Amino acid sequence: MCNVDNWTFFSLITTVRLIPHNSSAVSARIPTEGRVEIFLNGIWGTICDDWFDIKDAHVICKMLKFPRALAAVNRGMFGEGTDQIWFDDLHCHGNESSIFRCRHSGVGIHNCHHYEDVGVICQDNASLPEQRGILKNISQLNGVQTKKIGSSIQVSHASQ
Ligand code: CA
Ligand code: CA
Question: What's the pTM?
Answer without folding.
Answer: 0.79
